[in-house]
Amino acid sequence: MMTYKKLNDLAGWIIFLIAAVVYGLTVEDTASFWDCGEFIAVSYKLMVPHPPGAPLFLMLGRVFSFLAFGDKLQVAFWINMLSALSSAFTILFMFWSITLLGRKLMGLRPTDEPTGVQTFGILAAGAVGSLAYTFSDSFWFSAAEAEVYAMSSFFTAVVFWAMLKWDTLSDEADENRWLILIAYIMGLSIGVHLLNLVTIPALGLIYYFKKYPTPTNIGIFTTLAVSLFIIGIVMVGVIPGLPSIAGGFEIFFVNTLGLPFGSGALFFFFAIIGALVWGIRYSIRKENALLNTALLGFTFILIGYSSYALVIIRSNFNPPIDENDPSDVMSFVSYLKREQYGDRPLLYGRTFVSERESVEQGEPIYRKGKDKYEIYDYKMEIKYNKEVLFPRMYSNGEDHPELYRQWAGMRPDKDPTLFDHIYYMIRYQIGHMYFRYFLWNFAGRDGDEKEAGWLLPWSPSKDLPEEVANNKARDNFYMLPLILGIVGLLYQLKKDEKNFAVVGMLFILTGVALVVYMNSPPVEPRERDYIYVGSFYAFAMWIGFGVLAIADGLMRFIKNPLPATAIATVVSMTVPTIMGAKGWDNHDRSGRYHSVDQARNMLASCAPNAILFTGGDNDTFPLWYVQEVEGFRTDVRVIVLSYFNTDWYIEQMRRKVYESDALPFSLTYDNYKSGVNDFVPYVENPALKANAINLKSYLQLVKENNPAIQVALQGGGSTAALPAKKMYIDVDSAAIAQKPWIPKGKADKVVKRMEFSLRNGAGALYKGDLMLLDLIVSNNWERPIYFNNTSANTIALELREWLQMEGLTYRLMPLRANNRGDVGEVNKEVMYENMKKFQFRGFDNEKVYHDEEYRKFAANTRNAFYRLALQFYLDKENDKAKEVLDNSLRLIPDKSIPYDYYIPRYIKLYYALKEYDKGNQLAELVGKRAKDNLAYIVRYDLDDFQNSSLKDRSMIMINQLRDLYAESAEREKNIAENFAAANDSSITQADIDKAKERQAFFNKKFEEYEKIFNDYYDRLYGK
Q: What phi and psi, each to the nearest 5 degrees, are found at residue 323?
């Protein structure tokens, strides 16, 4: 006969198997966008990722990479599988946690054997709750990619289950062993993510309720206070605190006592071990079990935390990816503290209207010198006016003040009050950045575009426009998970207040409390729902308890508990079923490759031995993956613009990596070390007679720290200044004109002096801009320098008129570009050959899911094809222009990547090529979609903000088509008039009539779209 324990174990493993199969089938085959490319690359070769690192994840990722058995193309899949299996194990421990709490809901003691019906109900609750979480949107998303959040969830689930298991023990020695195990797991979790620590107050309540069966308000408050104190000890005292103390010893031993580097840290290490050994021996002699358990628990936290040794060890080997270079104790402390990211005020501080009052010199910052640690800078303590209590609106990004005022409903001339801050927090931070995500998971989601809203059961489901209906991420759960979860919540509150407090505490601390701590700015580069999966985990447990609630309610009408429980199970099981069925197509990432292909295509656009500047994460991390894991185009040196502002990164650029030689710089370490030339302001120099400076001479002055260009800084010290906004480089045009990389027929266009200036609105250079100038001058056209689209448009220097487009990259050349309003000029021969090498895997299969980020990159590639085709057309190579346009629509088809706002350009060029039928087909298609979208928004009076992307994009399309038809009508009018005036026997009356017919057609279309635009503009923007 199967006992409850055996059935519980078996059922748990069955649920685990279901989750593992689901995640295994839907896992991404390669590196996803965002941080995944970075994590796969650094796991594969055990390198150093962005702070604060995730060393345990890297080590386990390295182990999983062995399962590729040498096939580099399978490495990403197997590291992704680490997340898939971590997520499946999360579901396993969640199932067992629900069944442990389910027993308590039924009033069973740990030693009681449930009846058959009770067993059925408990296991059904575990199955429904854990399967609902299996198919929840945010958790499923993290389960399919190589990110730390899946493994972090695993540790959270294990710790929570272990504490519930501890609650069932009666032997004190066993209890203490489990507490030590929990401490060790928490220590290990630090090497993945810190989210696990937020569970400590919930665990504290479990401990308190067991040790004090009759709880009091004071006892609960004290428990929560102690729990928060423990979180503070670990987050402040252990993670950065111990290394900081070690750094203090290191400075004293090396700088004061003259001992070798590492001696102070080594002394502190042995001192900690000695103190713990003495304390543990003392607790044994005194037979103090509490002290012994506490010290052993702390020891095991440190053992788990020791995975961070990987960071400093690997950094000392100078791997290709070595972010922040934490190779010594002092830089390691900065790495752990995430000092590069700045801070966010929580309880008291600045607002977005605050201004600097003063900058005071704070603690010294040390770096490793030749024989001691040197002070190279000081932390700057900025004092602001108008500092307030509980500041939520604090950031000063380009559009942040306006967005703050919109969300808080503030007048333009009003300073934010405490009420405004709280209103913004409730409306945006909690409402938009948490509650919206919560409803994505348990009510439904209206699409995959950024800022997507959530769905109600009665949200439109019929007569949807094609773009909305075909969005695979539009999933309506009809609020069934939400309703079942609320039923379970109320049931646990009624039946088991203590454990309701435990689950509720977990729900709040990993949800709303985390919102308060994160203090989000008014716009994020991506959705942040993955942060709050711990809160969704707690709610999914209530979904499980909803089964027991329904069964209990049915027993009032059906006296036999077995059919009541069976009915409750069947009814409740519809919740995970509908979540899985609806969510499968937009969580199935199999067959999707464009995150990697666009990186390969970018590298394929570069000449051998190139230097490539990139901007954002999605530009860069796939490139790292392709080079480090797949070994593709390792001759290209990738430079990340934001990192180029740091001394450690510039130093790494001075090393040879794979086939890429060290980069040439004239400036030395003393010119770009941290604290030196971080900010190079434009300060007009009246003595400068010319309106432009010679860059080579200027860089020499910077190198010499010449007083003629130095200006004082507010916080003390000085920096180089830029004496003119214009600058130039002398070019040996005769020699450069002979180079094979000069475009055909452009040798006589090579300039003798290449002039450029600061971009409009830029009042200074940053260190990265200064080093870019140095690289351009020092390189002297020896290695090709490229920019991708992001970097070309974000540097402070106006170099766009000196760029030649060669694919998805732009090459810097001493040729003034005829760019016609776009970035750079197209080098059509090189670009045509480069784009033959491009890959578009997965686009031929409309079943493959490409979310917004993939669609965005594919759209940018469409624009590159268009620019190449346009250049062929302008050079009167019409056949080539048609070939490029046709190929692009075949390689990036509408069925996989719906036509976008670049398509009107295609239409215009097709018309110019006299391919009127192709142009009209495209125009009808995108025009109909735009009109349908706008009609849908107006018909249902949809929320302005959540549908702003659909609305704005559709209005832009209508406007583009309106202008296109107006231009086309005017062109056909001119053609007809020219035909009529021409004295050419080859031109017939039929030719003139056709031109007039096309003119009439375009005029009619213009009038149609003019009316549509004006009508919808008044309705959607006029209110």
A: -70, 125
Specify the amino acid at residue 645: N
Closest alpha carbon to 52 in 317, 290, 239, 276 = 239
C-alpha dihedral sign at 698, 704, 710, 712: positive
List Cβ neighbours of 284 (8 Å cut-off, separation of 6 or more). 292
Give the pair of three-digit tokens for residue 73: 């193309």
Q: How far apart are CA 707 and CA 730, in angstroms?
A: 25
pLDDT beneath 70: ranges in the chain:
1, 340-342, 687-690, 715-716, 943-948, 1023
Residue-wise pLDDT for 28-37, tens only, equals 999 999 999 9
CA angle 972, 974, 978 (to 5 degrees): 115
Instruction: Name the phi and psi angles at 844, rounded to 5.
Output: -85, 0
Separation between Cα atoms, residue 507 and residue 512, nearest integer Å: 8
Inter-helix orientation angle 172-190/148-166, to 10°? 170
d(CA 680, CA 830): 37
> Taking the chain, what is the end-to-end CA distance rounded to the nearest angstrom?
71
Q: What is the pLDDT of residue 412?
A: 86
Q: Which pLDDT score, from 0 to 100, does residue 343 have?
A: 76
Distance CA 653, CA 648 (A): 9
d(CA 1017, CA 632): 49
* Burial grade of 933 (CB within 10 A; 0-12, 13-18, 19 or more): buried
> b or e along 874-901 (b: 16 or more beta carbons within 10 Å of the residue's beta carbon)?
eeebeebbbebbebbbebbbeebbbbbb
Angle at 839 between CA 833 and CA 845, to 5 degrees: 140
Instruction: State the angle between helix axes of 116-134 and 480-495 in degrees (0 to 180), rounded to the nearest 10.
Output: 130
- Nearest of 228, 197, 202, 211 to residue 293 by alpha carbon: 211
Residue 835: predicted pLDDT: 95
Query: What pLDDT is recorded for position 161?
Result: 97
- Dist CA 867 CA 807 (whole Å): 10
Phi, psi torsion values for 632, nearest 5 degrees: -90, 125
Bridge partners of 377, per DSSP, are 365
Q: Are 355 and 384 in contact (CB under 8 A)?
A: yes
Spatial neighbors of 594 by CB under 8 A, at least 6 apart, are 840, 841, 842, 843, 850, 854, 857, 858
Phi then psi dihedrals of residue 77, to 5 deg = -60, -45
- Please, are residues 54 and 193 in contact by the beta-carbon 8 Å criterion? yes
Q: Give the pLDDT confidence score for residue 309 in this predicted structure.
A: 93
Give the integer Cα–Cα distance in Å for 559 and 993. Answer: 86
Q: What residues contact 761, with CB distance under 8 A and at least 6 apart?
A: none
* DSSP tag of 271: H
Cross-strand pairs, 803:
812
φ and ψ of 893, to 5 deg:
-75, 155
Sign of CA dihedral 80, 84, 87, 92: negative
Task: Confirm if 410 and 392 have CB atoms less than 8 A apart.
Answer: no
Residue-level pLDDT at 460? 85
d(CA 187, CA 852): 37
153 neighbors 86 (Cβ within 8 angstroms): yes
CB–CB of 769/833 below 8 Å? no
Instruction: Compute the distance between CA of residue 76 and CA of residue 814 in angstroms, rounded to an integer.
Output: 40
Put residue 784 in one of left, alpha, beta given phi > 0 → left and psi -120 to 50 → alpha: beta
The tally of CA atoms less than 13 A away on the side-chain side of residue 359 is: 9
Of 454, 336, 342, 357, residue with least CA distance to 395: 342
Who's near 540: CB < 8 A, 6+ residues apart? 94, 129, 130, 132, 133, 136, 485
